[in-house]
Amino acid sequence: MTNILAILKKEMVHELRNKKSSLMLILFPIIMITILSLVLSSAFADQSSVTNVDILYNLNGNSTLTQEFMNMTREASKSGFNLIDASVTGINPGNITDTGYACYIQLSGNGSDMVLYENTKLSMEASITETMLSSFIRSYNTQTVIRKVNPASINKPVNFPEGGYVQAESLQKERAPSSLDYYTIAMLTLFIMYSALSGLWAINSERTQKTGNRILASPLRKYELLAGKTIGTTLVTIFQMAVVFIFARYILNAYMGSHMESIALVLISEIIMSISIGISISLMVKNINLASSIVNFVPVIFGFLGGAYFPLSNMDSRFLNTLSNFSPIKWSNDAIFKVVFDNDFSQVVNAVIINLSIAALIFAVASLVFRREAQLK
Amino acid sequence: MYILRISELLKKFGDVVAVDNISLDIEAGQIFGLLGPNGAGKSTAINIICGLIASNKGTVTILDNDINKNRHFAKQNTGIVPQDIAIYEDLTAIENVRFFAGLYGLKGTELNSRAREALEFVGLLDKANEFPKKFSGGMKRRLNIACAIAHRPKLIIMDEPTVGIDPQSRNHILQSVKKLNEMGSTIIYTSHYMEEVEEICTKVAIMDHGKVIAEGTVDELKSIITDTGTVWVTVDHVDRVREEKLKSINGVQSIQIEESIVKVNSVRDVNNLDKVILYFTSEGIPIRNVESKVPDLETVFLTLTGRKLRD
Ligand SMILES: Nc1ncnc2c1ncn2[C@@H]1O[C@H](COP(=O)(O)OP(=O)(O)OP(=O)(O)O)[C@@H](O)[C@H]1O
Ligand SMILES: [Mg+2]
User: Fold this and answer.
1) Which pLDDT band holds residue B241 (cuts at 50, 70, 90)?
2) Is ipTM over 0.85?
3) Do the domain assignments include residue A225?
4) CB contact under 8 A, B54 and A2
5) Domains recognised in chain B with CATH numbers
């Protein structure tokens, strides 16, 4: 334990004295958030007036609500919502994810129950639809509840994994993200991926300075070295990102909702994953040029897919949207956006579990590689 | 008491046999020199002793503990001065020493005082709070040593601690090695430099191509090749030299004359150079050059391997 602490402490001293690292992971994201949010603010202002969201609906029976719903569809079509009768298309709610429709709305005959099947691949459109629906229900019938159903779990209707019954009121979006809100989260999750470079550096500097072998010749055990390095680098990265977050939140006044602990949870799990990736790649790929290329390249791809530069859902490619589900930046972003703007915590646990699982997995592989070699060369 | 025993140690890197069946017993209290040209296998042997690489065969025991069975004990009692300087450029001198000594279990005020002591020992105490970035090569080498000794190991292994430094730092290091030895540590000292090893080592092993080709005290090694000393005198008029007169000088054993060089072989340690030279001058034979061929380790090595130690 004292050994882990010794390594941890040293790692933090290295990192905090490393001006390049502070510049890259504190100053750079702050500048990016400031610039992007200023330059692209107009792109976000009219984001709520979406063009062409295709939505399916299925009405059973005839009630005041269904009639009002039909009135609403006509109004909604003027602002870009194309509501189409599902019976014409023959698509059923379970297949919604394989289509270009954002949602499948099912209205029961007596009008008490509205079930919303969201296409998870078009989550942005789906959540806009959700907002539109909830304001519709608010204006016509406060008794109706929207039941959100994940199409994947359609065969187990009793367990609603995504929160079960939600009161229409709570679905009312408090606000849509401004460009500052958007880029604060997007840049944090992006630059956290770059903090993998700190992990890479933590191992590689022991190689270039030849100090790694000196450590391994001491009574310190290998796992203590790895644990100390991982925890130390993680703590420093948490500190760096906290500075960025606090700056964006309190100096630039980004809106971050009122659930900091959930945001922190997602960001910290992403940091742990990112540091683990950096340390592991450095252990597995001995060629530093190759290793740092990998670590530099990964955030660019994941960042693009995760919407770090611009929201990908604005683009019309289903392929890209599917691919983006493989980006840690995407699921971290989604989880945080839901917390901040929807008060929806359903994706926090998922994002944290996935991030930590990836960290554990890549660590396990790297440890196997590292264990077979006594030297750090 | 043996501090280190190496038995039939073998290490291959692919086809290269870096350490070829070495056996060595090193008694406590020695300054043990490990001498050999580039690629002899010195560093490989040391890395095995330090637990940094696994051997293919053989055993190493430190104070009767097998390093593979009681790794912690072995490491705790060893200090390594690596061939390549291994210090952190962004930690101050004392932070470097404190960090490495801390890995051996030293804590708090004891850690601090031992770190200062180690820095003082290598003459860097006044630079304790400076960053090694600004240090000269010699100062870095000395810090490299300080990092290995603060925990007062019983066995200190120094892998070429004087490579590429100024004579003053080298001298300082050689004196430190002697002092560490006097304070009770056994030292293993590898080098290319004969003079260093001759000056400080109590015992020497010569390695070449992964094998120990000779072992003993410096004097024992010298006596392997010869028990005589030779003086080469280059003269004009070799024809005027009378061998029997030279042979009558005290200690002279034999005379060889090759072209213009008169090779006078004497019993070792008899100082008769003045008398040999007096002979030539008194006979009016002009001397062009005198070379004393006292055997040194370089000659020992040359004789054993047919190669020079350093190119
Ligand atoms: N990791 C390695 N992989 C492959 N070959 C190696 C490795 N380490 C050493 N060797 C080879 O083993 C032999 C012995 O090397 P070693 O470094 O032990 O020699 P040395 O006596 O310390 O030389 P020097 O005086 O140059 O430090 C050399 O031929 C070297 O090329
Ligand atoms: Mg060497």
Assistant:
1) confident
2) no
3) yes
4) no
5) 2-222 (3.40.50.300), 227-294 (3.30.70.980)
